[in-house]
Design brief:
This protein has 150 residues and is an alpha+beta fold. It has 4 helices and 7 strands.
Length: 150
């Protein structure tokens, strides 16, 4: 039991340190996730410094450029991982920071991975999240001072 509590505490601290750097997650679906069904008890989202696994509630992680450096361009980053998980550090945060260096605001999408356990139709879940992220970034572009180029 002690080992379990220690592990859970370490994961919580890692998650807080990773995402609290200056990035406040933005819920993709504040009113409820479409095409979803209740997750089974053993399907728990897990986030470490490097990986996001079993995502049930998709979010955007904004890495915005300050206005003096901004080019007016934004990108959405979809971390890979072979549908086994999302490589949040290597294919997310590192890429976002590289874009920020050249004046481009970046949004990392922590999206759902296909799963019959949490989706009515797993063939469209990640695509729904990608479409919702694009719509949200375009809708709030003026607020963030960035636009997606068409």
């Amino acid at each position: 039991m002690r080992k379990f509590i220690s592990t859970a505490f370490a994961i919580a601290i890692t998650t807080a340190v990773t995402f609290a750097q200056d990035v406040a997650p933005i819920k993709l679906y504040p009113g409820g996730v479409p095409n979803s069904k209740p997750a089974p008890a053993d399907y728990k989202e897990s986030i470490t410094k490097d990986w996001a696994l079993k995502v049930t509630d998709p979010v955007l992680l904004p890495y915005l450029v300050d206005k003096a450096k901004a080019t007016g361009t934004a990108v959405i980053i979809y971390p890979g991982g072979g549908y086994g998980g999302l490589s949040m550090q290597n294919e997310g945060v590192n890429i976002a920071k590289a874009f920020n260096e050249i004046g481009i605001s970046a949004f990392i999408l922590k999206y759902r991975l296909p799963s019959d356990a949490i989706m009515i139709d797993k063939t469209i879940g990640p695509l729904q999240d990608a479409q919702a992220a694009t719509q949200l970034v375009r809708k709030r572009a003026g607020e963030w001072g960035s636009i997606l180029q068409r």
